[in-house]
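Anyone able to model this chain together with zinc ion?
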Amino acid sequence: MQPLCEFCLITEDITAAEVVDHIKSHKGDLELFYDSLNLQSLCKHCHDSAKQMIDRGKKVVTYGVDGYPIEMG
Ligand SMILES: [Zn+2]
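re: yes, here you go
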């Protein structure tokens, strides 16, 4: 696992990851729960903000260092 928050890294922010997040919410599905490809490291801030919106089906767009919008999630 990444020691740094993957959402923050998109904008080249270096933030220590505090939460292991399931990219697709597992909803009790053990296969998804243990699938290491379904895991990402996030800081608490990203997990509680951007990730919550993605889980609710909202589009979250950030801007990369090159100025282009990047869809997250
Ligand atoms: Zn973050």
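The CA atoms of residues 6 and 42 lie 6 Å apart.
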